[in-house]
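Hi U.,

Before I forget, here's the chain from the pilot set. I'm dumping it here mostly so it's searchable later in email.
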Amino acid sequence: MDSLCQTSAVTGRLAPTPSGGLHLGNARTFFVAWLSARAAGGRVVLRMDDLDQPRVKPGFVEQAMEDLRWLGLEWDGEPLYQSRRGEAYMAALEKLRTAGLVYPCVCSRKEIETAARAPHEGEEGPVYSGVCRGKFRDAADAQRQTGRAPCWRFAADGSGSRIEFEDALHGRRGFDVAQQLGDFIVFRSDGIAAYQLATVVDDHAQGITEVVRGDDLLTSTARQLLLYRALGLTPPRFLHVPLVLDTTGQRMAKRRDSTRLAALREAGIPAAQVVGALAASCGWAAPGERAMPAKLIARFDLSKLPRQPVQLDAMLQLT
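Structure:
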């Protein structure tokens, strides 16, 4: 696997997906990630998770960088763009193929959901039954037989599919990937690396020692730890932050304009007010206090971070 940078003792990362403008939920996660690394005297690197090019809107890469800078979340070194990392992902796929850990699959999502074999429900819906495992010699054979371009799935079964890890916030967590999640996609049928594989490859390449992200990705951590093991890589520490909810109690979405950072900036709301609200929601500032991240490094205290989802609208008086 390739290596892109030298690391300090702690290296965290900001990894926005430029398929829409960053919102308050994204900002809170990036704020925690930045503060955690800086409080440990570490580095923070930037990666653009722009693999899904059809969903990357014009100008959103630049806007994401502008949003982060506006919040005072500066990064070290040059950004990494996943859209330019195809060779690294192919090398990882080849390593998994050589080890016999992946197989081509031509099943559509609809077919999986309506299969006659009635796949059982897992943590995230129907668990793939593995019907394509061992069915084709390789991707070319799969396409020849079915007329479909296959994806590649990681075979998660076996005694090693039980994954346990210590989350810095949620404590000991465990998943049986084969039973609860099933064989998962590592390369899509359009030839693009899937999130699970690309994240593992790039976190290793950037020397990431700490991953901070939303707790909706706890199950992804179990999948990724299987990939770390399969690729012979050392995994980082994980910290999964509870999500930010909107006023209806739903997960905050990029389609809601009023919570986009660009909209707040255009409305004249000071960055220090937004950062203060983020800090207050984490227990690191008083309600209404205004501050920028650099002034809050000494206040970072994981024990104060709420274990439940939070709402930020009221703190910013946006409702």
